[in-house]
TrEMBL record:
This is Exonuclease domain-containing protein. InterPro entries: REXO1/3/4-like, Ribonucl_H, RNaseH-like_sf, RNaseH_sf. It comes from Penicillium chermesinum. It comes from the Eukaryota. Keywords: Exonuclease, Hydrolase, Nuclease. One of its GO terms (biological process) is rRNA processing. One of its GO terms (cellular component) is nucleus. The keyword Nuclease applies. Residues 421-438 have a biased composition (Basic and acidic residues).
Length: 461
């Protein structure tokens, strides 16, 4: 019997703006949310819906045929001639289309019984493009900065790491001591939090799990890049999110700042005005920080473990309060400074760059084009994974850092004493006269007693 394969499917269309260039439902859904389209009614037939996914699935019948794709006869010889090379096999990997729904504004139940029972379909993986959300399995090295080679976990290792992450989440007292926003009443300033653009009254808790929504990710690593706006505040400009267990890239998007940018901080953020303008004009940039937060909530809930480095800054520009956090900066510092009472801030937090070198042997943040959010997200994720999988390496590093920190404290104490001695010596010096301060008269010096004595002796003789 001749081999058969289905013909390629047509592109999907957006029911909000009728844009027709989407290869996967997740990419179309992210575009729909980012643009702020209404999910309540179909533009063609005026039928009402309760969620985005049902509307998207319903709308496709107006743009693509509902009949099954035609089968193309393929001979065995042609199949061998057209067999993909090993380099192209990853490009043609297949993924199951996710059916994650927003936990805050979207409902899972659809009024259309056909659309509500539609099973996930398998679609070919499109090529990864900058700033376009594409869900795919293990990330190809070509899509990441050359300095990062993500740690690959087997299914058994994923289960073990997931269990360990749940026990490594920092207690609320530790998060509060390190400056995290964990509840609405923890900050005195009710308008603006620290240097973030998000007012405190717009912070929201990550939605809880819902029986009506699809299961969310168990662990996600995120990193944000910020730009400077008025009053030295920070605004979200780029968001990256990866599945911390599988290594899948979930989000890698520019985010349009909510206010006028005063400084792009390209050296650190990697974002320029021209890059943002092009992304906004093409519709590839996320509309604002609220939409970016909504995109993240489509993937996580309050039971998801969030991983990051100094994650409090990322959560502040997203306006999020999250209960389960593993911060690579806190995790490593706690190994150096064990504090069972959790009474204050850590004595020292090590930078992501130094931790990546120590635990991964990777040199990150070395380019002239600024930090890469995806690179930082993978680095923080891999550092946490290494700390869990290799506790002996963590303890050995912690011992070295304790010795180094003692040397630093001794050096600081010596420097403090030197400054105190110099200050005391300066206080003992006689105050100069007014004329001396103005420089109109030469500075008076103490007489040399030996010279004076000899002069007196010569005068007497």
């Amino acid at each position: 019997m001749p081999n058969q394969k289905p013909a390629s499917a047509k592109l999907l269309s957006c029911p909000g703006c009728e844009k027709k260039n989407f290869q996967t439902i997740p990419a179309l859904r992210m575009h729909f949310i980012a643009k702020g389209h209404s999910a309540s009614r179909c533009r063609k037939c005026q039928k009402t819906f309760n969620d985005v996914l049902s509307l998207i699935q319903h709308y496709q019948k107006y743009t693509i045929s509902t009949d099954p794709p035609a089968l193309v006869q393929v001979s065995a010889k042609a199949k061998l001639d057209n067999a993909p090379s090993p380099a192209r096999k990853q490009e043609k990997a297949e993924v199951v289309v996710a059916t994650a729904h927003s936990a805050e504004t979207l409902k899972e139940v659809s009024k259309d019984p056909k659309s509500s029972t539609t099973r996930p379909s398998r679609v070919p993986l499109p090529a990864v493009e900058d700033y376009v959300v594409v869900e795919h399995p293990v990330v190809e090295a070509a899509t990441l900065p050359s300095s990062i080679l993500p740690i690959s976990l087997t299914p058994e290792e994923q289960e073990a790491v997931s269990r360990s992450l749940s026990t490594r989440c920092h207690p609320p007292k530790r998060l509060l001591a390190e400056g995290y926003i964990i509840e609405g009443g923890t900050v005195k300033n009710k308008e603006f939090v620290c240097n973030s653009c998000v007012p405190l009254n717009q912070f929201r808790d990550t939605p809880r799990p819902s029986e009506q929504s699809a299961p969310k990710r168990r662990a996600v690593a995120i990193d944000c890049e910020m730009v400077e706006i008025a009053n030295h505040r920070q605004a979200l400009a780029f968001l990256s999110a990866i599945d911390a267990l599988t290594g899948e890239v979930l989000i890698s998007r520019l985010v349009q700042p909510s206010e006028r940018v005063l400084h792009w901080r390209t050296r650190h953020s990697g974002v320029t005005a021209s890059l943002m303008s092009k992304a906004v004009a093409s519709g590839e940039a996320v509309k604002n920080w609220k939409t970016a937060r909504q995109m993240l909530w489509a993937l996580v809930d309050s039971e998801t473990v969030l991983i990051g480095h100094s994650l409090k800054h990322d959560l502040q520009v997203l306006g999020m309060r999250h209960p389960k956090i593993v911060d690579s900066a806190i995790l490593t510092a706690e190994a150096v400074f064990p504090d069972p009472l959790v009474t204050g801030t850590m004595t020292r937090l090590w930078s992501l760059k130094k931790l990546a070198k120590a635990f991964l042997g990777a040199d990150i943040q070395v380019g002239k084009n600024g930090h890469a959010a995806l690179e930082d997200a993978f680095a923080s994720r891999d550092i946490v994974v290494q700390c869990i999988r290799r506790p002996a390496q963590l303890e050995e590093w912690a011992k070295r850092m304790r010795v180094e920190e003692k040397d630093r404290q001794i050096a600081r104490e010596i420097q403090r004493k030197l400054k105190a001695a110099q200050k005391l010596e300066g206080d003992k010096k006689p105050e100069l006269g007014r004329a001396d301060r103005k420089g109109t008269r030469r500075k008076q010096t103490k007489p040399n007693l030996k010279v004076v004595g000899r002069a007196k002796g010569l005068a007497q003789t």
